[in-house]
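Subgroup meeting minutes
Present: P.N., E.W., G.H.
Scribe: E.W.

1. P.N. recapped why we're keeping a running log of single-chain structure predictions: easier to compare across weeks, and new members can see raw inputs and outputs side by side.
2. G.H. added today's entry (513 aa).
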Amino acid sequence: MEDARARKFDVVVIYMLSRLTRQGAAEALKIQQELAKHGVALVSTQEPFINTSDDNPFGVAFFALIAGLAHQESKNKSKFIRDAFAELKSKGSHSSGPIPYGFDAEPVNVDGVTIRKLKPGVTSGKEVGPESTPADNVMHMIEAVESGLKENAVANELTECGAPTPLSSLDDEAAKARREASRKRRKGSSGDDADNEWSPTVVRRILRDPRLAGFAIGPVDPKTRVRTILRDEEGQPVRPHEGFITPKRWYDLQAILDGRKRTRRMDRAGTMTFLGSWGALRCGICTSGMTVANADETYVCNLNRSVGDAPKHVLRIGMDLANAIVAGRLWAKVANLDPDDPDDVAILTAAAERFAVQGTDPEAAAELAEQEAQLAHVQKSMEELYRDRSDGLYEGTTGRQAFKDTILKYQQHEARCLVRIDELKAAATTATRLPLEEWFADTDDGDPFAPGGLWDRWDVETKRSFLSLFVDAVTVNPATTRRGTSLERADGRIEVDWAKPKPAEEDNESVTA
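Output recorded in log:
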């Protein structure tokens, strides 16, 4: 246009009008009028009727008509593209952006529509390091967090061993774009900048991704910036991809990242004890789980600073004493359960349900575990959604409708999970019973602690499973007296919370509330 104003030429030749503009007749005429103002004509090689020279009085009229048609065609194409993307998205296709770290993509046909299905990439079979693949690194992150490492420790470990980062797996242009987007998102901080330096944010982002379990992703939560699970019209998760881990394992992983699930079933020295380091034994001062001090063979809670109402403290109890006291109370309780006592009936009911779940067939047990994990996840999502609404994030007509649509899907999914869980538990309970007679028949004179007896033969994991049937928690309180033997003093400090059936689920807040 600058050259036209300088009269460096007399005619602009275009291939087709759509190559000049697709903004409609008004925009096209604006360009033509600017050219005509400086005595420059416009000619199309593929549309000979577009010729705005002085000797073609119909050229401008044809020009406006074709411009309008080109604009409509552009709108139609845009709508087609939007509809196509919506169709692909509804089926969970990975339709745009880089392939997620650790994955490969392949085209597959779903209901007559070709989608891009994600699947785990190749693994090297080598230890994580400079030659490990992204798929190797993803599995290492999952297993590290499951074993108890925090995201910053995992990031440090990956950096120290030189594992390739997500940036190093991209081409130069994509890596540059990712860096720029990262800087804008973090306002100048260094999160994704280095090719060989991992950050806790990157580790967390990978582990939070629902695609690890094969789920399709929905919109990013505007508050937490976490990718949500895409759900169909009935609220069910859409799962078109092949994941690194099962949905149950992914839900458990999210609970670990949220701090809602125990990660270690062994103590810090790698040994397994009857009560310590798996959440059964609680501190009576701060209610935290007690760990193992192998040096002096004690269970211990060592809080080195005040947290809330809990003061700084060290609480210990002898390991052998606690094990013997709890095991003795456990077997005494089981031996004397009275089917006419309401409290004992509650314990028997809870134990029977738990035993049925433990003893059910592997497929049913896996489904039950997944349904319970899904239930916990969707209920947490509902709590966050209600919290966001109370914070004013769903104001206005559009916001209220978005809240209503989302919470309705969550509630439908929650209801289905509850129904299926009840069905699975009922089926398992019907098919199994507590083998009380067998347990006591397998003891010497009714004594499970006799040498070579049942308790002596069971390994630690079996003892833990037996305890979890009848006990919800064991609490150790501070010592209040020095009188009596060490066994008597320890016995006075221990409280056992016997198993209780799960209460019926309370209804969630109404959608219209």
